[in-house]
Design goal:
It catalyses: chlorophyllide a + oxidized 2[4Fe-4S]-[ferredoxin] + 2 ADP + 2 phosphate = protochlorophyllide a + reduced 2[4Fe-4S]-[ferredoxin] + 2 ATP + 2 H2O. Pathway: Porphyrin-containing compound metabolism; bacteriochlorophyll biosynthesis (light-independent). This protein is α/β, with parallel strands linked by helices. The protein folds into three domains: about 25-145, Nitrogenase molybdenum iron protein domain (Rossmann fold, 3-Layer(aba) Sandwich), CATH 3.40.50; about 170-260, Rossmann fold; about 280-430, Rossmann fold, CATH 3.40.50. It is about 45% helix and about 15% strand. The protein contains 18 helices and 14 strands. The strands form three sheets. Strands 1-12-11-10-13-14 form a six-stranded parallel beta sheet, with helices on both faces. It has a four-stranded parallel beta sheet with strand order 3-2-4-5. The chain starts with 13 loop residues before the first strand and ends with a helix.
Amino acid sequence: MNTPAPTGCRDTPVLRERGQREVFCGLTGIIWLHRKMQDAFFLVVGSRTCAHLLQSAAGVMIFAEPRFGTAILEEKDLAGMADANTELDREVARLLARRPDIRQLFLVGSCPSEVIKLDLSRAAERLTAEHGPNVRVLNYSGSGIETTFTEGEDACLAALVPALPQTQARELLLVGALPDVVEDQALNLLEQIGIAPVRCLPARRAEDMPAIGPNTVYALTQPFLGETHAALTRRGAKRITAPFPFGAEGTTLWLKAVAAEFGIAPEKVDEVVAAPRARAEKAIAAAAATLRGKRIFFMPDSQLELPLARFLTRECGMEAVEISTPYLHADLHGPELDLIAKGPVISEGQDVDLQLDRVHATRPDLTVCGLGLANPLEAEGLATKWAIELVFTPVHFYEQAGDLASLFARPLRRRELLARQHPARMEAAE
């Protein structure tokens, strides 16, 4: 029997670039993690710049008391004139005395703390011994020296895995920080399909953190969790291979892969998801009227680029010019590459000047990029989409599929409106 040739991009040669990058740092992940983990606190050991970044990114009001803060490293700390560990211990003691509700405390490394080689892993062990068992102190790096902004979540969840208890139970674990309403939708669908019990990492409270063992199977909900995937594998858990649950098609394939692991027929999944899938497809179609036939260029930012490109090309009718991602994890991203039709450049990493040359040469209808590149490209007459908004906005599973498509349609509609109202100005920009 002849095997049909693969039509996807898994075998497409990858353009690998290693040069100047334009990315947010991993501290940004705290903005959604502190909302998800209700009794956790994220203490950044860093500079005033780190503190300003978090305050600005979170939009925290002066009256709010969020579950994150910064232990400021002053000049004397950076110069080695003070014992940073002593000062850190004092700040942690003050924090826990004021906030007795904290059950998990994350010491988050930054560029300054890494430059002075402050050993936060040893500090976490010391502080756990001092403040446990009521408080567990963990650490991870959110430094922007080597990380993109979604790697902050990956590092945080990977730090949790070794501390999780052992179990022999066969259970499904959902991995990735989802907004509560989206997580509830996923759990409801899985329950209707017949899959239970289901645990989540991260859990909303420390007491609900899952146990892990050789019979644990897990499904990733985010494509940037490579280190967490490796940590779970070391604990003996097994990953369910599937595309990620973006859009109607991706969500259905993800659910069917999970169901197959538990011996549930795909027909059962189709029966359960018929109504929400129909709603999703109707909502997507409304945005696809604007997106169909438009060319899109993904610059590397969030590691969401491949599943989003699959969604936009297959369900919204867009044409991908280049799909670039900070890191291409063949194991995690393979199912997405299998579904993306051959044609676009697939690239990993970034040399921003070379990539901007390709953007200028191809002049796509829409460029997905970071905040630092969006305004210059807009000034040159190119429509852009902020990549960071795709992480802050609920976009997973059926009920959010229309919103996801609309995020890409909105800048194109805005551009069409401006072109009608100010044609001379738009022509000058181009």
